[in-house]
Request: fold
Amino acid sequence: MKRIIISAVSLLVFLPFSCKKEKEENKLSHSYAGILTYEYRRDFPGFSKVLKMDIAVAKNGTVTFGTGSSGTFSGEDIYYDGGNPAMKLKVEGTIAFISAKGEYQKINNNDCLLIWTNTKIDGTQYLWVWDNDLNDWVVPPAAHEVPFEFNDEYSDGQMQFSIDEATISGQSIKATLPDIQGNLTYGYTLNLVMGLDK
Reply:
């Protein structure tokens, strides 16, 4: 009988601590759901390709992503020098948002998501120059057909997103580089919506 009473008392003492520990495992006051957008855009030749992946953040900080997707891109444009055609450029290829992974961290008292991506762009650039004598486009002796690629791999490191900023207006982490005309933009945007759970 004494052993049963001691066991019951031990159980009662243990239960409040168990509940408290379980409650403390919730690192966030709400869950979140949203979209991670992967963008590749060029002003010359003008085109834009966007792929999206679902993201969910649980209250305990667990981050999960949806399935990947892929697509094709193509653009062609003419560069004019003093109003006269000088160069014609065409790019085409494939873009793939293969996968992503992430984790929640509290950084400088801010709720943040660290996100790693696995993406790939495979493309080919074609170049023609204008021949005034022939009054036509001709293939230059070199660099007519040039393959290119951009890869993001998990080993390249993570991007740090603010949950508050991604929820209020979306947060972008992009690189914008000068191109032949305009810019080349490559990167990611995170948009989150707060869950209704409490």
Notes: The two ends are 43 Å apart (CA to CA).
